[in-house]
Specification:
The protein is mainly α. The chain has helices spanning 39-66, 70-76, 86-108, 123-127, 131-151, 160-187, 200-215, 227-248, 252-287, 295-326, 334-360, 364-394. The protein is 70% helix and 0% strand. The protein is built from twelve helices and no strands. The chain starts with 38 loop residues before the first helix and ends with a helix.
Length: 396
């Protein structure tokens, strides 16, 4: 059995031979403790490490949510040990936030079955030949949508957004049909039930163009790209066309294609956001170029800003899921949860503005101006990044 060392006086480092002045060598950093230990010692160290991490989380998350810029200023001041490192913090919160968002979207998907649906159709509107008939058809469709939601029972609250979209679509279709009916007498033409529909020839041409592109060969040959890159692009385009064909087809294949797109999109989001963080730091560097700060300082600001955004997203989605789960059992609980969601949403811009003011220490007019410009640029960069992530998700 190896003897366990408990004193370092007079000892030398086994790695570099330097005289030890503590538990760790001041030359190479190696510990003087042996790594060959009984299993119960390893279990004790594992528990201690986990508790230490938990302690750092307790010291990190409250100021991250409630004290704008505090963690960043602490990091710049050299007080870093008691807090979770910025990159680790943003990495964990990013994965957790998008994972919970994905679960929330999957739980919100409701299969209404073959006889119950929350979709508006325009057949009854096209068949109506008077405004009164259109109004009657509209009332019938709205009543049918209400019955469809009631048939879902407690799950009806999860489909509230789908119901609103369907109602608005029905009202819009009815308004368009009424406009066609009112314009027909003025033009002196006889109105047919299908006048508001596109002709069969137009639909056939549109379908032919769409099918020609979707069914065409997907081989891509770009002269300045190597062969393996052309093969990869061709394969991605082929997957994109296959997903589009599946989403246009009726039945279960459409839902499978949509679920696959959603999964791939959320799989791309963490990578997309990790690209956005250094871009946001670059924006800070450009707008604060005369403050003579290193890019690494701006990167720490970007890491803490995004960590806060992911934490807020995680809390907001969790509050929404909890509200939907408790609504059938204790509806009164949903009101404070909704207020918390609104509070989080309103606190986000205020938090980021206060954080920018505290870290860069400029006056309010200049801070507000730069905050608006940085937010505008970041919004369009994020929009472009999300579009790319969606396209890449479709191409898998």
């Amino acid at each position: 059995m190896m003897k366990q060392l408990i004193r370092h006086e007079g000892m030398r480092c086994a790695n570099c031979g330097a005289v030890l002045e503590g538990e760790f060598c001041h030359e190479c950093g190696q510990s003087f403790h042996s790594v060959l230990k009984p299993m119960h010692h390893m279990a004790e160290e594992t528990v201690e490490t986990l508790l230490h991490i938990d302690g750092r989380i307790v010291h990190t998350l409250p100021p991250l949510l409630l004290r704008p810029g505090f963690l960043t200023l602490e990091y710049f001041s050299g007080r870093r040990v008691r807090y979770v490192a910025p990159f680790r913090l943003v990495f964990v919160l990013c994965l957790l936030a998008f994972f919970v968002c994905h679960l929330r979207l999957e739980d919100s998907h409701i299969d209404l079955g073959p006889n119950t649906q929350l979709h508006a159709t325009d057949n009854s509107f096209n068949a109506a030949t008077t405004p009164a008939a259109v109004e009657l058809a509209l009332q019938q469709q709205l009543a049918g949508l209400e019955r469809a939601q009631d048939a879902l029972g407690p799950l009806g609250g999860l489909a509230a957004s789908d119901l609103t979209v369907a109602k608005n679509a029905a009202r819009q279709q009815a308004a368009q049909r009424i406009q066609v009916l009112e314009a027909a007498p003025a033009a002196g033409t006889a109105l047919q039930p299908s006048d508001s529909l596109p002709t069969a020839a137009d639909a056939e041409v549109h379908t032919k163009i769409s099918n020609d592109w979707l069914n065409s060969p997907s081989h891509i040959e770009i002269a300045w790209l190597p062969g393996f890159a052309n093969d990869r692009v061709s394969k991605s385009v082929s997957h994109l066309k296959a997903n589009l064909r599946a989403m246009e087809s009726p039945g279960a294949s459409r839902q499978e294609a949509f679920d696959r797109l959603l999964t791939n999109f959320f799989g791309m989001l963490p990578q997309t956001m990790f690209v956005m963080i250094p871009l946001f730091a670059l924006l800070l560097k450009l707008f604060y170029v005369f403050r003579r700060r290193l890019y690494m300082e701006h990167l720490i600001v970007a890491l803490h800003s995004h960590a806060y955004l992911f934490f807020s997203l995680l809390l907001g989605v969790s509050f929404g899921a909890l509200s939907s789960w408790l609504a059938p059992h204790a509806a009164w609980v949903t009101y404070p949860l909704h207020w918390l969601e609104w509070g989080l949403a309103l606190w986000i811009p205020a938090y980021l503005l206060i954080m920018q003011k505290r870290i860069y220490r400029q006056g309010w007019p200049m801070t507000l101006l730069k905050f608006g410009c940085i937010g505008f640029c970041y919004f369009w960069l994020l929009t472009l990044a999300l579009l790319v992530a969606g396209a890449l998700g479709m191409a898998k």
